[in-house]
From TrEMBL:
Pfam family, one: MZB
Name assigned to this protein: MrfA-like Zn-binding domain-containing protein
Species in which this protein is naturally found: bioreactor metagenome
InterPro entries according to UniProt: MZB
Domain MrfA-like Zn-binding, first and last residues per copy: 200-288
Amino acid sequence: MAVCSECGYVEDMALTGHQQDPQACPRCGSTSTRDTGNHLPIVELTRVTAAVRRDEALISDRSDERRQVWFGIVPAVDVDPAEVAEQWYVKGYDFGVKYLRRMTLRWLNLGEQSAFGQKRRIAGTDTVAPLFRVCTGCGCRDQAARSNSRSEHRPWCPYRSSSDEHVEEIALSRTLRTQGAVIPLPVSVTTGDPFAIPSLSAALKLGLREQFGGAPDHIGVAEVPDPLGPDDGTRDALLLYDTVPGGTGYLAELTDPARVHDLIYRAWRKVAECPCRDEERLACHRCLLPLASGREIDRVSRQAAERHLRAILTAGRLDEPSAEGRWDVTVERPTINRSLSPLELRFAELYRSLLEELNGTVQLVPGTWGNTIRANVGPRRWTLEPQVNVLGSKPDFVLRSDDTNVPPVAVFTDGLAFHASVDINRLADDAGKRSALVEAGYLVLSVTAADVSTEEERREQGRETVTPPAWFNEQLAGAISNEGGFQTGDFAMVAGGPFDFLRRWIRAPYPGAQRKMADHLPMMLALSGAATQGQVPAGQDPVEQARRIVQGGAPGLGVGETVPAWWWHTGPLVVLSRVIGDEMVEVVSMVDDRPTSVGVAGFPDAWRDWLTIANGLQGRGWPTTITTLERVRSSAHVADAPSAPRPTIRVEVFTSDWQTVLDDALDDERSLAAELAHAGLRAPDATGDEVGDTGIPAMFVWAAEHVAVLSDLVAEDVDDLRTQGWTVVGPEAAGITAALGGSAADRTDNEGEETH
Ligand SMILES: [Zn+2]
Ligand SMILES: [Zn+2]
Ligand SMILES: [Zn+2]
């Protein structure tokens, strides 16, 4: 028999005459049925022997997304389209029911558990399949290879006394012909979540029990691949099958979507309300545990079931399910595009692979919004938590270390379709979101769909690195890093992309190295010849200069002093760098995100470069602005009024002194600190210290200037300090700047709105 590697199709080659040349699998299109490794002599068991107990199947930890069964009993269901009596699907969501009035379910026993047996892929499962060695004369098990003994045969066997062995390797099968319902699971539910299928499998049984008013003993649940047709492969599904041969007709009720909604709703209510939600455990005896298959017990999670059932009930919208809720259904099977599996799930999957590459020990903790991934790598412990609310934004993930010297990394996975298309242009909003996080000391990592597919390809092809962006030059990277006092590898953020950066970060999370690289990154554009060299007026706002370039003009004709500058202008993107002071390089990266521009062919590349450069400029110590044309244009209206404060359109990166202050600042101090840093003042020498003889608590203290900032100007304290020679001011930027003698004057000019 030829058994498909991907689905449960089994071809009897003797019957079909395909012995010499079996065709591709008619169910899923896999060509594995031609592979002799998948040609197995299968012997049907008419009675169940002690050796065949399907619950001996051992599901190991994940390896890629394939399941590995160490004791090879694999369920193989042949889903014959001709036997599908009825099917329905939720519109726009890949969930539904395919009811089979007849189907063949085989449990294939592929031999005893052994680390050394030949590996095969059978019916979508990677398994060790040493098979059984039996005598061709009498069918008895061959106990010891390469020797024959009379006790291994039946009395009538012709080979009983033979000096040679007459053995054949076979697989055993137990076959049930019955009725079944294939329930395909949404890719967005199963991707990268090892808890999903075992938890939903148990939850489905729970729903049946609730609906049935007791355990429906004659209904079994198996995890099987659902073949989608010769051109479309398979996807994960659960199979409900009638254990009574021929079937009882019970499962035909699932052709009614309302009935299935009710079943899933009951299961969801039960898991959502189970008291174990407040206990530190995956699931309990009151909800899913009694329904879990023994080997998967550590993969059955109440929270995972609750989350995925909610997603299914609401067709992915995740709003509140209701008992009366109904799906909008269709009989057309929705086309499944795997690359549309949510980007954040694919990111989490790659992150886990990355931890494995780094020999990390990984633990998954199910949560309301997805799994938190904990890992120990070297001396540090890392936590990647999904959907965390921070500072008014909700990054897809926040990566933290238990090493307090390591700043948190906020990860945004940005599908182009979501964030930058004519319909939904959120780039300007994104730029604002990032700036708040950067001000609070986060590293912000943008991960695009292209980054994710590039990393997926790299892993598939077993390559070490990904191709760097066209503007990145390896030789120059060596020279620039030498000059800047960092390592070439610190260019990982731009050269290797987000995953290469994370690999390096988790091994050696040194913000200092990233900062040096970020400071020097503009040199890459200058030296590679990609940029146009020139002089720009020193007194003019560089954001304005970038705006002129991106709109097709010259950077601006100025009066007075000019400074060396270079700008890389490619399609809707401009990166303008200019020298300020003796040593510093100021950068403005601006993408033209006007609706007319977002639709053009070159936009996706420009957008990706803009994000890569934004990633690369993280942690910069020198003035840096990451913005969009729409953002600048919208804030220009505000800036027209001379007295209006300058809108915060900058992703401001502070000096390390200020960064320390910001890190230590209390919530009500942070915005003031950011404002002072932005104004270019020197960072205070102390935060939250006591000053004066009587120890009056001050927000910020500049010791040399004898300036203290008090949150409340209590007259008594103020007088006290003044007599001791202090200048005392309230928590307000103008007063503080004045008290410090307007030392911010130079910087302020640089950022001024006025053009000379
Ligand atoms: Zn197949
Ligand atoms: Zn024999
Ligand atoms: Zn429970």
